[in-house]
Amino acid sequence: MAAAWTRGPTIGRGSSASVSLATTAGGEVFAAVKSTDLSSSASLQKEGILISQLSSPYIVKCLGSDITCEESGHVYNLFLEYLPGGTLSDRIKKQGGSLDETAIGKHAHGILMGLNYLHTKGLVHCDIKGENILLGENGSVKIADFGCAKRVGSGGSGFSGTPAYMAPETARGEEQGFAADVWALGCTVVEMATGSHPWPEMKDPAAALYRVGFSGDVPETPAWFSGQARDFLDNCLTRDPRERWTAAELLRHPFMIAASAEEGSGEVIGEFAKRASPTSVMDQDFWDALEVPENPMEISSDSDSPAGRIMDLIGDGLSYGGWTEEEGWLTVRGRLRGQTKND
């Protein structure tokens, strides 16, 4: 990375890093720079290595990295493509809390193109949501924030992401594979339609994960959706990951074919194949609550019981495996069944 750059205003802040505008000596914005203290930058450096290996118009570009000496000490900086359109969540708010079906289809198609690319590379994003989708000037979408991403089959057994968007199998502490990204896409479609988290009635973290993992419920499909949009969402939010459609299959769905035609991209894969699916409902207040009650479910925490699995995921209080607020959404990082703190 060229040495001559200036840190501009902060445009985002997470639990472990801040994001600022990076400008040239002439004052021109050339990147968004994600920065953190060098001593705790291992995760950000890993993210940089991962993104630098990707090349897709649907994935934010890595422009390099450097280390600067600042008042706070040595800082590791990761330079990322700057997209002036902001996040998808920002766009939803500006549109009054709901996008129309045409816009939802267009954005979902772009996210799917990015997910299909990642999945063919053996990568799971693990934190798809409106806050992690960036928009270009022409409304194009790019997947960003790979801090939770992992390679399938890499041996890691941890889980991460935003609880409101977690798939049932992840909430149960079983797995977090490609299918979990598809479930999160379905939750993001609900966000685009409603401006809200997909489980707005839930207040308690443990009880919410329990409901996601074990109740059989799915987020409610917006009543105003067309038949095609409803069927598309149903196939994203199928509780059984083995029955849930893959990103490649969803790109063949009529709703995506129509969205692709609207976009004029022509990037549609294959023909449509039908499968069956299921539906149900669940305020933002819950996802703003950081405290885990002392006895949230008042049932055994044996690791073989559903409650035990949930408590394994939540971990010990708010430190390890806990809940941290990042850019207005809660991000959780923890372990799956059988994993210890030292794993």
UniProtKB/TrEMBL annotation:
Source organism of the structure: Erythranthe guttata (Yellow monkey flower)
Keyword DNA-binding (UniProt): no
Molecular function terms from GO: ATP binding; protein kinase activity; protein serine/threonine kinase activity
Family, as annotated: Belongs to the protein kinase superfamily.
Keywords: ATP-binding, Kinase, Nucleotide-binding, Serine/threonine-protein kinase, Transferase
Residues that coordinate or bind ATP: 34
Name under which the protein is recorded: Protein kinase domain-containing protein
PANTHER family linked: CCR4-NOT TRANSCRIPTIONAL COMPLEX SUBUNIT CAF120-RELATED, MITOGEN-ACTIVATED PROTEIN KINASE KINASE KINASE 15
Gene Ontology biological-process annotations: signal transduction
Span of domain Protein kinase: 5-256
